[in-house]
Amino acid sequence: MSNSSSEGLPVRAGDVEGLGRVYSEFGGPILGPHETLLAQRNKCDVAVFGSWRIFFPKEIFYPLPGNPSGTLHVTSERLIFLRDIDLWKEVRPLLTPLSLPTAAEKQSRMKKLKATGARQYCEVFPMQLQLVNVMRKPGLLRFRVKTKVGGRYQLLVYTDKDDPSFFDLLENTMRERSGT
Q: pTM (2 decimals)?
């Protein structure tokens, strides 16, 4: 999930490279000098795709199977999603007879990351995006956004249960901060 060439992009995702820059070793977000925390929601998950396509979109950040276990922090400048590395959720989809070597390699790599204190993160900068479409369902909020140079992103936020007040805050934050 590491993406070292993501500097300057409106959506960034990764793991160990965010330690000390996006999140602290204790798992909380690191805020900028003029940034304030508006809200946070536990038991969330996020998916971010680099296109609006339904089939084979470019995956930037993916949700894990099972119950949502991450935390979404809404700040005055960005959305920060953090989750602990869950070895079982990461490796379980790969446990088939043909992909056992891949599962073993991924488990080894994830164990090393977890030992260094790494977490998986995704940060979104609404000021660099223009909101095009919002869709709501119980426990799901989907944003379709585009950049000023024509790039398109789709952001999905999942929660463990329907939370209209949090979704209202997220939607208002994206509308106010984006170019719409």
A: 0.85
